Amino acid sequence: MARSQPQPTKSKTHKASDDQQVERLHQGYAQSMEVTKVLADEKSKFQHIRIFDTVANGRVMTLDDIVQITSRDESAYADMLTHLPILEHGKVERVMIVGGGDLSIADEALKHKGVKEVVLVDIDERVIALCKKHFGEINAKAFKDKRMVIEAADAFEYLGRKASKNRFDLIIADRPDPVGPGKALFGETFYDRVKGALKPGGYATFQTGVPFYQPWEITEALQELARFFPSCGLYLSVVPTYIGGFMALSWASKGGKPLGTPAGIKKAAAAYKKTKLKTDYYNPAIHAAAFALPNWIRKLVP
């Protein structure tokens, strides 16, 4: 499977017709969705936001013309960034979400009764407002939950605040691809700020691209994380509309135990059973399997 890969491209999603959406995120490859209804189409101060219904993928949102979420497969992404570290940690009380304006990740974090606060920091208030209006099936409970704190701000700046230091048990970086306003959420300075905002023993999880088309993201992210955290690593999910097969999710620990150890997996399975967590994608078997990497992905891990 390992092969030479195309380099990053800024190709975007292009509207082919009134009823078709074509995304060309990866060089030489495209995916097409048949659109049944356009619900929102506007440019905010930061990006182009588009929300529409489709024949095969449910409700979809694109930002700067790149698919961010669909109602059909969001659980494969949100569940794995959230439940896996929370259940292995065992005592997560405060969660920060970098980005995540659709609140799908927040909704999953709030399913844990031990969580006292979920702070979502997204730079674009229009994303939050439009998702509240059009993705209620996913996020309605989160918007009503008193533990939910939403701040329309620059997450990079927020992480550097004095009040953020040693505050969170879990930080989830639901960052877009490293273009436009998302560029600040990659690189060493960002990871240093994440470390500073974590409590000792806390975890951070990150979206790290689709390795089949974006292999460099895994290598670069893990090299940078290793400079700031005593342990870090990789696990996988499969999100059909993030084209390319496996979705790479990276993790880092601030002095705590690594994720994915036999003891951690066993602990998470017991917690899952005890809490009777309701999930669409995550379960203990998926948790364990997520750390099994194909050989061609192993080679990307520094």
Question: What does this protein structure show overall?
Answer:
With 302 residues, the protein is an alpha/beta fold. The protein folds into two domains: 14-70, Spermidine Synthase, Chain: A, domain 2 (Roll), CATH 2.30.140; 74-298, Rossmann fold (3-Layer(aba) Sandwich). It has helices at 74-89, 104-109, 125-134, 136-144, 155-159, 188-197, 215-226, 262-275, 284-289, 295-298, and strands spanning 14-17, 20-23, 31-43, 48-54, 59-63, 66-70, 94-99, 117-122, 148-152, 168-174, 198-207, 231-238, 246-253. The protein has a seven-stranded mixed β-sheet, with helices on both faces. Helix 1 (74-89) packs across helix 8 (262-275) and helix 3 packs across helix 4 (136-144). The radius of gyration is 18 Å and the shape is globular. Residues 1-17 and 178-186 have low confidence and may be disordered.
Please tell me the CATH architecture of the largest domain by its name: 3-Layer(aba) Sandwich
The shape, in one word, is: globular
Helical/strand content category: alpha/beta
- Which residue ranges are poorly predicted, with pLDDT under 50 across at least 5 consecutive positions? 1-17, 178-186
Topology as H/E string? Answer: EEEEEEHEHEHHEHEHEHEEHHH
Distance between the termini: 18 Å
* Proportion in helices: 25-40%
Strand content is 25-35%
